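<context>
A single protein, sequence plus fold
<entry> Chain with its tokenised backbone below
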Amino acid sequence: MRRVAGISLLAALVVTVLTAPLASPALGRIAVDDLDIEVFLGDGNLVTETRSLNFQIVVEVASSSRVPHSITMRTALPAGLRFGSDAPGSTDGCTGTDPVMCTVSMQPNPAGTIGFSWRWDVVAERVGSYEITATVEAAKPDPDLSNNSDTFTFAVVASPPPPPPPPPPAALVASAVRLSPGKPKAGSAVSATVRVTAGGAPVRPSGIACTATIGSAKLRGAAKAASGTATCVYRPPRNAKSKTLRGAISFTARGTKFSRRFSAKLG
């Protein structure tokens, strides 16, 4: 007996009905017109994380009959399972759904095997363990009825909750300008620095632009980027004592543009 292994969660649920091979008539064990059907649905537990299954029944009949005859397959879904949009119907040679009864007429085929298959959608309405049983009967005598029915057992379990979404990126923060020395003097270098962080971690700025004026005169600044800081260094002239130094530091961090202004009276 060939057994059908359990399948993956998103694959089809396969229920197979197979025939046992016939012994050679020459051995005198089975008469020429005898028929034997083996029914096997599989074994083991099918654990699925989807509520929608594809249910297939395959029947293969090995018979050397020389006259027409028929085979009837019966199966039913247990409580908690129902047929989906593709359900048994007259086009399948089937009637009813509880149970399903499908009858197939077979023409004489003395030399080979005749195969039939049904494929339907099955939906699980709730989690739990289920059993599906299929039975096959022949209109002509079957010498072995013990292998004409079998049951497949499986379980439907709830899908695990999705993982939480990743946290949003920490917002960029650009501090106010800090001057060094705190009381700048004319004729001495003055550093204007802005701290740049995201979630408390330093972020290196780029594209730093330094502008400044003393009265109506423009004052150049030297830009310097470091991890977590944007700095402009100015050198006001000696004759600028008691005048006000006004400036701005502009830069880009992670695609966002920032600008911070400052002013200080020169000593």
